[in-house]
Amino acid sequence: MIPVSIITGFLGSGKTTLLNHLVRQPRMGDTAVIVNEFGEIGIDHLLIEQAFEDTVLLENGCICCSIRGDLVDTLTDLKRKVGQGELPPFARAVVETTGLADPAPILQTLISEDRLRRDYALDRIVSTVDAVNAPGQLETFGEAVKQVAVADSLLITKSDLANGGVSALQHRLGEINANAPIAAIEHGKADPSVLFSGTTAQREFSDWFDHAHDHHHDAESGINSFAIVIDDPLPWAAVKAWLETVASLRGCDLLRVKGLLNISGRSGPVVVHGVQHVFHTPVELREWPDAARTTRIVFITRGLERTALENALFTYVAEAA
Q1: Smallest Cα–Cα separation from 258: which of 242, 246, 274?
Q2: Consecutive H or E run containing 225
Q3: How far apart are the first and last CA of the chain?
Q4: pTM of the full predicted structure?
């Protein structure tokens, strides 16, 4: 399956500047870059090998295209063009959101849309954060907070323009999302590796979990991040009923969920990944990432507490016994 990474971030936070730098890199040669406004990507001076409607193929092999209709149509059309020989095969895809976008619907589309699930899989969410304007944006706009909260990686842009430095902003970002590593960049200069995990699913989850042992609560936004850890194997029916109930009743507050589950009767861990009301079809992996065969579920929520979720899970487990 083709991994798809999302670049999100508030208006003017440097998403397009980042992409303009990335499309020049040789390592992006097997990547499809999908943007909302094609003209904003500065590719005029780059050598273009071929051009199609709303799509250009750069000399280094990077495919750039603009969203026509919706994301489902665009990704489906790209695969069709590859199948018909109009475009070369691509190994990865990057989607840039609009500055005011709530990223949740895009994530839900990637993990639930039947036309995409055969060919594409959500990889990473990268959020750009404006070093100068982000403090005010995070206080005023819920979208800005959500873009930070769901990210796997945070890139502070325009750090060269922040007279007071970025330490206070880094602290604020850590309060909202303690799971995501934070890096400061200038002029959009970042390595393409920031967009993709480049590791096995087991290792990627384990790395993400390592940041989420403690319970973090941001009083200003109400964002909580915490991990539920259970040693004993769990019955799948109980876990499934629990997740469905939480998603149904509090899905709007369930910003993101990643879980590596120790399920009774399964030799490998079962991975669950959800965004608000939508969960990806669970996948059983062949092996555990480490010696600890424990259930580890990381939650990023608005207003939900770990104790309440744990108690609800244990109730379902007891009923299944």
Answers
A1: 274
A2: strand 223-230
A3: 37
A4: 0.81
